[in-house]
Automatic annotation (TrEMBL):
GO terms for molecular function: G protein-coupled receptor activity; olfactory receptor activity. Its main location: membrane. The keyword Methyltransferase does not apply. The keyword Membrane applies. Keywords: Cell membrane, G-protein coupled receptor, Membrane, Olfaction, Receptor, Sensory transduction, Transducer, Transmembrane, Transmembrane helix. The gene is LOC114584410. It comes from Podarcis muralis. One of its GO terms (cellular component) is plasma membrane. It is a multi-pass membrane protein. PANTHER family: OLFACTORY RECEPTOR. InterPro entries: GPCR_Rhodpsn, GPCR_Rhodpsn_7TM, Olfact_rcpt, Olfactory_Receptors. The chain crosses the membrane at residues 26-50, 57-76, 96-118, 191-223, 235-257, 269-287. It holds the Pfam family 7tm_4. This is Olfactory receptor. Residues 39-285 form the G-protein coupled receptors family 1 profile domain.
Amino acid sequence: MQNINNVTEFIFFGLTQNEQIEKICFVLFLFLYLVIVLGNLLIIVTIFFSSRLNSPMYFFLSYLSFVDICYSSVTAPKMIAGFLVKKKTISFVGCMTQLFGVHFFGCTESFILTVMAYDRYIAICKPLHYTTIMTRRVCGQLVAASWVGGLMHSLLETIATNQLPFCGPNEIDHYFCDVHPLVRLACTDTYIIGVIVVSNSGVIALSSFITLVSSYIAILVSLRSRSSEGRLKALSTCASHVTVVILFFGPCTFMYIRPSSNFSEDKTVAVLYTVITPMLNPLIYTLRNEEMKKAMKKLWSQKWILCFREGPSRR
């Protein structure tokens, strides 16, 4: 495909063109982004400094929180800054970089969520073999595989999109650079690239979701022979993860399992998995997890005690 590129920058339409609504959106999304960063950092710091949270589940959770921060940081700051200006532009290189980051961290998150479901399956269905199967080395390999899988996926998406000829127009009806909006701007037949996008992004989202559902079906089947107390404890452990899976994979599957088309709902759906889900993850995993809440209280009470002790000594 001959790459004819007369476009040096792209113009975002953003979430809205109304100036009054943009001011409200600026305050709202700035607040949400701060919650994402601070909430996920709180989880990472708590897991890192707490000796009680040393199981594989929290090891994976710390990486999930890190990916959430990175994932939102690829799109949210640019979107928030765009609420303050009339013309929302991004360079061609910046657009391709943003496209790479969105798919890299988004795909990595989907793989980590799948790994977390596998961890819960082993913990509940094979408790006697859990420590021998989910060793520290295996956990590290699973996380590394998630990063490599995300890298390979994002490279394919970015390289394929970068090869498209863009000769105008350069206006994107979105608030960040993604494959579907860019494909619609290409001045060539995009059937092949459309097939690549659906087969790559769609298959990854759908296969990960099917794997997750299969894991939890197996968990539910195995719980039938447990006592009511054991079932409640196991279900409580899995409830947080299931909630996050639904919030993340539902919108992603809607976006990437279908051919490229211009739906006005795309921007709203994208907000769910780039902003709302990363914001809710810390709340879901802390409010529904007694171990995490206890570890946070203990850790931060110790920090305050140390601060009060150091204060008089310095004086």
